[in-house]
Description:
Number of strands of chain B: 11
Structural class of chain A: mainly alpha
Oligomer: heterodimer
Largest sheet of chain A: 2 strands, antiparallel
Order of helices and strands of chain B: HHHHHHEHEEEEEEHEEEEHH
Distance between the termini of chain A: 47 Å
Strand order of the largest sheet of chain A: 3-4
Distance between the termini of chain B: 83 Å
Number of helices of chain A: 4
Number of strands of chain A: 4
Amino acid sequence: MQIEISEAVSLDERGVLTLEQLVELSDLPESELRALVDYGALAPIDPGAERWTFTTSWIVVARTASRLRRDFELDAHSLSVVLQYVQRIDTLEAELRALRAQLG
Amino acid sequence: MKYKDYYSTLGVERSATPDDIKKAYRKLARKFHPDVSKEKDAEEKFKAMAEAYETLKDPEKKTAYDQLGSHAPGQDFRPPPDWERSFTHGQSTFDDVDLADLFAGLGGRGGFRRRADSAAPIPGQNYEAGVQITFDQAFHGTEIQMDLSMPEYDENGVAHRVPRVVTVRIPRGVTDGQKLRVPGKGGKGLRGGRAGDLYLDIAVTAHPLFRVDGRDLFVDLPLAPWEAVLGTSVQLPTPAGTVSLKVPAGTKAGQQLRLTGRGMARPQGVAGNLYAIVQIVVPTVLDDAQRALFTQLAEASTFNPRAHFEREASHAD
């Protein structure tokens, strides 16, 4: 029997997706994603472009936003504040990991 | 179908008001939500709570749930015949149905609309799974086989848990905490809806020698005092095999010797670096001859490792 192997794709700065694709992948409505961009929680590659595109690394943020919105029943503004804190924690944890790696 | 007691999951009585249910859920969500909680097994616990709240917060779903009766958690049961007639469509069986999928399928605009009543395509569900891999698997890339229980819709729009084996290639250079997407490997869509995606949460087991910071790796390099003073060449283990590393004379403790490109791979571009962090270790047991040599060195040397103490002290005077 032949085994089908699926490729796991990194969600990073290389892949690009449209706003419509981000809606589909995050389960967030387009209006909510637009509001998150307005509040600075999501950043299109070119905010001035007529049709927004994003790097695939934003899928992770948008999916986190979708979970937080659903589970805590948050509006877009509260969501952008919480996301900012979550990202700050991620950054601090990364710095902590870096220091631990260097100190042993 | 296995029964789940949504009321006890939220720690409320069956007679709880919508407000009680909301309060209980919010309190638990704050404690266990995986995005904000560091509690052990938070994800598992939160999933159960969210599932319970999802049904109990919706008056129509709550009514349908209450009409299933009360059973022991985990007990196999069949919904009463009336229930099936009221809430589902067609001849679905409930043997391999998860209560969560069933109630997720019962919601909708305009009340208790059934999935099967609509002709619109329904996208398959996204599915998230944790994957534990070793450091070596992360470094070299690997293939893993996953046994999943995936929700898939029958023609009536009822989601059944279907066992699926998915083999996934993990690219080299993934890091702990990274998320990967496997397009189209989530639940299948219904009526032409696209398949969901599988998302992998990667956890990498710590390596006894190598510590990871992004793409860079760190390894402790213990040296004897005379090796650090005179310089030497050591065999250094790296994830890709042992390499010969030249340690220059006069190497200090804490100094980082860089091995360019010997760290974790990058999807594009150059790999990270491997840093050997020098530690000076001393022998704790000396024989007479060795003690005599160290004493001789101590007497001959004018090296003062604490010269800066004296400089500081003279400033303070």
